[in-house]
Amino acid sequence: MGKNKKRMRRLQQGLYGDGDRYVVRVLVDGRQTWETFGDLALARARLSELKARQAAWKSAGDGSPASRRAGRAGLPRVSIGEYMKRWIERRRAAVAAGRLSGLGVEGKDVQVVGVFRRFLEKKGGIGAGIDRIAGSLLRDYFEFRSRTVRPATVRGDYLVLRKMFGSAIEEGYLARNPASEPGVSPPPAAAGGREPVPDRLVSLAELRSLAADLTGVSLHILICGAEAGLRLNESLHLCIEDLDFNRGVLRVRGREEFGFRLKPRCSREIPMSPTLLAYLLDAAGGREAGLVCPGKAGKPYTRVGATHRFGRDCRALGIAVSPGMLRQS
Question: What is the pLDDT of residue 104?
């Protein structure tokens, strides 16, 4: 038998990989089981054991996906809140095993699921069964998100949720994907929300007015963007260790501990202006480490949350400004 035919047969059986690493993937007890082996014989032996467990599980007639879809007695119905928690745990386990990128899981999946969880909590549906989630609820969620974030971000949320509900289908908790129902995909433009802020140059008078009245993370974004030309994520992940007050420069670099990466050519040193130096000295407050402007539990603010707060505070002062406009001013 040819090499490709052998590989295809292993894939059909649930055995992935070739050479020094083999992954066994089998649905057992309603969950996808992933295990990694360095030897093909060990991987085949484990696959046979898991296949036997899978056959016993299906023959029992009380735990198979078909039984759960038909509504017969079986595994307890899982709530959407509990399933989201399990899904994130499995995604993080896959990162630890080297099967997924940590930046994609922590930077996107965790954030999207967290926002969707808070939306469900406000709706009072966090305890509902996952099979009760309808396409109409997802449409409401995407319309809600369209009021505060860009269409591309809403599209990203849609892809993550569709992937999560797809995993629920594989595990037998759903018969069809609610994200694939007609009319659920996010709108191409913001629906029912405010108009996007047009790009323009912010005048010096406007910057001075904002600097006099803004506080917290909004002031941090303003000063770092206007005085140092930092991007939004660069401002939010700026740490005290990156500040050299003796030389009067700040270093812009990635922060792996927060899942923030920079392209190699984006790492740089920026001279501090007197205004920026005075602000950073005050923000540091004698600390020697940590974020310059920390959020809850010492973690950085999310991009979505910081953008929303900055825009809200600026509109309250009668000035329409977005964080991206500050670097051009």
Answer: 65
Q: Which of 24, 6, 5, 4 is nearest to 16 (CA)?
A: 24
User: Given a cut of 70, is residue 27 above it in pLDDT?
Assistant: no
Distances (CA, A) of 280 to 240, 248, 250, 328: 9, 11, 10, 21
Rounded to an integer, the average pLDDT of 204-214 is 88
For residues 9-38, average pLDDT:
63
Q: Which of 79-93, 133-147, 171-185 has the lowest mean pLDDT?
A: 171-185
AA letter at 281: L
The number of beta carbons lying within 10 Å of the beta carbon of residue 298 is: 8
250 and 266 Cβ atoms separated by less than 8 Å: no
Closest CA to 218 of 112, 129, 321, 85: 321
3 state DSSP class of 232: helix
Distance (Å, rounded) from C-alpha 282 to C-alpha 266? 26
Is the C-alpha dihedral spanning 94, 100, 105, 109 positive or negative? negative
- 187 pLDDT more than 60: no
Amino acid letter at 29? D
Q: Environment class of residue 130 by beta-carbon count within 10 Å: exposed (0-12), middle (13-18) or buried (19+)?
A: buried
What distance in Å separates the CA atoms of residue 70 and residue 66, rounded to the nearest whole number? Answer: 6
In three-state secondary structure terms, 31 is strand
**Residue the block writes with tokens 């740089």:** 268
Q: Are 68 and 74 in contact (CB under 8 A)?
A: yes
What percentage of the chain exceeds 70 in pLDDT? 73
Closest by CA position to 176, among listed 218, 130, 208: 130
pTM as predicted? 0.44
The angle formed by the CA atoms of residues 111, 169 and 142, to the nearest 5 degrees, is: 40
The span from the CA of 329 to the CA of 200, in Å, is 9
Whose tokens are 């054991």? That residue is 49
Strands laid side by side in the 15-17 sheet: 15-17, 22-28, 31-37
| % pLDDT > 90, the chain | 2
